[in-house]
Amino acid sequence: MANLVNIGLIREEKQPQDNRVAFTPKQCQWIMHHFPQVRIYVQPSSIRAFKDEEYSQAGIPLKEDLADCDILFGIKEIPPAKLIPGKKYLFFSHTKKKQPHNQKMLQEILKKKITLIDYECLVHPDGQRILGFGFFAGIVGAHNGLMAYGEKTHSFHLKRVYTMHDFQDLIGHYFGIKLPPMKIVITGSGRVAAGALEIMGLLGIKYIPPEEYLVNQYAYPVYTQLKAGELYLRKNDKTYSRSDFHQHPDQYECRFLPYVTVSDLLINGIYWDHNIPPLFLASDLRKENFHIKVIADITDDTQGSIPCNLGDSTIENPVYGVTKDTMQQTAPYLADTVDMMCVGNLPNELPRDASQYFGDQLMKYVFEALLQPGNEMMENATITKDGQLTPHYQYLEDYASGKSED
Ligand SMILES: NC(=O)c1ccc[n+]([C@@H]2O[C@H](COP(=O)([O-])OP(=O)(O)OC[C@H]3O[C@@H](n4cnc5c(N)ncnc54)[C@H](O)[C@@H]3O)[C@@H](O)[C@H]2O)c1
């Protein structure tokens, strides 16, 4: 038999608390069955979406001290003091863009001779990311956007997602919910958009092609979806090429404006960075014909693609209002404001399903590669190896040595 590999699922210790986990109890069972050389241990946690008893009942031992494990799986950043020297860790480190708040953690990782594989850096050969929680962010974000619209217009009431046991429970909640005639515009074509479309399907909201959506009236709720090719055109020749847009977004103009005049709810799920033009401007918000009442900004960049995103809201208080003339933050659901849903950790409202989905992707595309020494995909996602920055990530040198300001 191949050498034994001891794997540990660590307790999430970052604040605000995170209740997700890399593998559910059933997934742990599946892995140990299919990889007899693997043993999985779980560090007890009172906040994890899957209870300690669920793991022990599935035959996965609980273990406080994971010092004997070879590989440790987490989700979010790890407090530096909790990092165990010499281990191989997989988690979202948020260090590859030199994020200032994680500089100390990376320094500790180097000091403690740790190998860090970052989930965000695991990509398919065509560059598409393998792992992400976007689908469930789309589910919860679309739900919250609709919930806010129902509250604002007093036309229907949706319960909060986090009060449900899981996604199946949420589906049950939708039976009998009748939405008023309304127009919903969804932006994006990635995992977030896919989650939002799932909610449209579950609530029986009808898809309308963009050109018809703009001009027709409907006696029932409808939505349209705008992918990058429908949202952006090159300024000089009015064409769109995906790769050119990704390389030169500043040479493109945004064509979203007509949709602000006819839509009731915007669900924003596009990829955005600061070179990509926003969907509309602050000055558009002041115009008489700005019709949108609620924006579920799942993309959630403060003053990014949506100028009236004034910062994150929380799962406890997911919605705030914004005045159209002065862009001041107000209480939600006032008559003449735009209501904003800008929660940055949406999958935490549905952590059991989000964890299962994540673990499925890990098992399908990553797990075997992780056990193969020298696997190229894993090497490319390895930021540090035994406490040294790998060749791919040498550009983090100044940040890691404490010199970087950005
Ligand atoms: N609020 C939350 O809780 C939450 C959770 C997950 C994701 N998000 C955010 O939602 C947004 C969409 O996430 P997703 O999971 O759908 O992403 P994704 O990776 O599934 O899809 C992104 C889409 O953007 C395109 N894209 C990739 N690189 C691009 C570039 N350089 N320029 C233009 N387009 C590019 C891709 O082709 C793809 O169609 C991201 O900004 C993400 O950070 C928010």
TrEMBL record:
<feature type="binding site">
    <location>
        <begin position="190"/>
        <end position="191"/>
    </location>
    <ligand>
        <name>NAD(+)</name>
    </ligand>
</feature>
<feature type="domain" description="Alanine dehydrogenase/pyridine nucleotide transhydrogenase N-terminal">
    <location>
        <begin position="8"/>
        <end position="140"/>
    </location>
</feature>
<dbReference type="InterPro" id="IPR007886">
    <property type="entry name" value="AlaDH/PNT_N"/>
</dbReference>
<protein>
    <submittedName>
        <fullName>Alanine dehydrogenase</fullName>
    </submittedName>
</protein>
<keyword id="KW-0560">Oxidoreductase</keyword>
<feature type="binding site">
    <location>
        <position position="239"/>
    </location>
    <ligand>
        <name>NAD(+)</name>
    </ligand>
</feature>
<dbReference type="Pfam" id="PF05222">
    <property type="entry name" value="AlaDh_PNT_N"/>
</dbReference>
<feature type="active site" description="Proton acceptor">
    <location>
        <position position="76"/>
    </location>
</feature>
<dbReference type="GO" id="GO:0004754">
    <property type="term" value="F:saccharopine dehydrogenase (NAD+, L-lysine-forming) activity"/>
</dbReference>
<feature type="active site" description="Proton donor">
    <location>
        <position position="94"/>
    </location>
</feature>
<dbReference type="InterPro" id="IPR051168">
    <property type="entry name" value="AASS"/>
</dbReference>
<feature type="binding site">
    <location>
        <position position="271"/>
    </location>
    <ligand>
        <name>NAD(+)</name>
    </ligand>
</feature>
<dbReference type="InterPro" id="IPR027281">
    <property type="entry name" value="Lys1"/>
</dbReference>
<dbReference type="GO" id="GO:0009085">
    <property type="term" value="P:lysine biosynthetic process"/>
</dbReference>
<keyword id="KW-0520">NAD</keyword>
